[in-house]
Amino acid sequence: MDKSTIRDLLLAFKTELIRFRFPVVLFFIVISFAVLAIGVFWPKQYTSGALLVADSSTIYEPLFKGRAPVTAIDRSEQAREVIYTRSILESAARQAGLLKENATARDIDQVVREIRAGLSTRAEKNNYFRITYSSAHPDSTFETLNAVVNVFIEDIARKKRDESVGAFNFIDAQVQSYKRQLEQAEERLKIFTGQNTDGTETTVTNRIAALRNEIETLKIAIEESNTRIATIQKQLSQEGQYQQAKGQIDDMRQRRQGLVTQLEGLLLLYQENYPDVISLRAQISELDNAISTLQANGEVFGNNERIENPLYEELRKQLQTADLELRAQQRRMESLSNLLEQEYERARRVAANRAELSDLTRDMKVIQDVYEEMLQRKESARVSMTLDLEGQGTSYRIQEPAAFPLKPSGLYFLHFAILG
Hints:
This protein has twelve helices and four strands, in the order ααβααααββαααααβα. The chain is α+β, with helices and mostly antiparallel strands. About 15% of the residues are buried.
């Protein structure tokens, strides 16, 4: 579109305005007064705001850092969720006088909706946040905002105290519960230890090793006893020759005694030179020579007396002693074998008891560790509860109190006049 065309349009518009000047003026007057009327009846909004800060920089924080944690509370980004709750808004409405004592549920709901509609929060940096409230009356705006702020701060402090007390009571109940469990575990371990007196694996192992050593030593002693008995029995086996020679000598002595008796009878009747006497004396002499020869060979001791060989008698005594000793050693071997078998059975019981003892000890150790940890947590919870009850730790405080709104916010009447 060129300049000539635009100029022609403007001239045509001017011509039409001059032509219809009375309707245009009338329309202008109507529009202006209508806008002014809107400005006169436009509802005024009074706004008031307060600046709050979530303050956690207290002198107690470095003193109890890591020892007594301060109860965590909502920061500025979570303040909206807390402030807009029905319980806080209803309490603020009652404190501001917007609700009567006999207010119905519908009235309460309507007032809460009005306060929630006019209330707004805006988070700022460094844990600061601003609460603003707008309404048609300055007094109501100021009082309602102060009521909301006070109820919010009181509710946060109450929640902190309730949470600290609740945490302490819960931990205390847990401590008592674990204490009872620890006492029961100690009692079970005490009963088990009292009922199982087999000792430890080290004791049983040492006992088994000692028994084995005794058995090995006893086996050697039994072998020595058997060897000794065999040697003595071998020596006694030669007693047969002695008994045979002894029997011959006894026969010779009996024959000699018979010949001596005959000789004595003949001497009563005959002289020494009698042939039978000489013959008997010759026979007696031969028997004496034979007896002397046997005795000279060492096969029999003694002359004419009936005595036993002392060597074989001593061997028999040694054999009896060795036999008794062997029997004692064999009985001792049986006893040691029984004791070793009992120790093996005892070792099996100790191995079985060790698993149960490990379970009982492990359970008691776990419960004891948890109990000691809960005691530390209980002490931390006690200090934390004390801090919260004293009003220390993290809390909200008013940085800038609410100001009474002297002027309405939004558009003024002058703005409507200019607009009209």
